[in-house]
Fold this protein.
Amino acid sequence: MTSNFRVADAAAGSQGEAGADGEARLDALTAELTELAAAEAAEIAAEAMVGAGN
């Protein structure tokens, strides 16, 4: 996905700082999404354990 931001930045003529900002934002969003997915997976696992009688 990083390359998609680089392509978009290059097309807009905004390389360098703008590209770094886009990559930093992508990294932050990826980290947030990963955290949310892990929390959801933990919740599903807990529900499965309750359903299995554990």
About this structure: Helices lie at 2-12, 17-51. Residues 2-51 form one domain.
